[in-house]
């Protein structure tokens, strides 16, 4: 079995009281994404080459982070919920600002200092 089959099998047997996420990141291959149609539709079943069928639980979600869907068919695209993000809307500064907005009240007054610390170190670390 490949890593996707192992991850989906694990998610399908996990505690039904806990939400399960299977995250996929990378380019979309035309054949591979078409084989995902049974997972993406209401059946939520992963059909493996071996003939095994893994049924996802109602609390399992598969999420795809892809650059584009150029090779995906309209049938596949229609099964997916899409979130489009502009390049300028993502990055560490946006995440830091969002995180600082949600700081607990007891340290809310440190948000500006924390932001300054990130500003002074993150860009240097990326270099």
Biggest pleated sheet: 2 strands, parallel
Mean pLDDT: 88
What is the element string, with H for helices and E for strands?
Answer: HEHHEEEHHH
Shape: elongated
What strand line-up does the widest sheet have? Answer: 1-4
Distance between the termini: 38 Å
How much strand content do the residues show? 5-15%
Poorly predicted tracts of residues: none
Q: Pairing-aware structural class of the strands and helices?
A: alpha+beta
Radius of gyration: 20 Å
Counted beta strands: 4
Helical content band: 40-55%
Number of helices: 6
Could you give a quick summary of the protein structure above?
With 127 residues, the chain is of the alpha+beta class.
Task: Describe what this molecule looks like in 3D.
The protein has 127 residues and is of the alpha+beta class. It has six helices and four strands. It has a two-stranded parallel sheet with strand order 1-4. A hairpin with a 5-residue loop joins β2 and β3. It is elongated and about 55 Å long. It starts with a helix and ends with a helix.
Give the SSE layout.
Blueprint: H1 3-12, E1 20-25, H2 30-35, H3 37-40, E2 45-47, E3 53-55, E4 60-65, H4 74-78, H5 92-101, H6 111-126
Annotation keywords:
127 residues, alpha+beta, two-stranded parallel ribbon, two-stranded antiparallel sheet, 4 strands, 40% helix, 14% strand
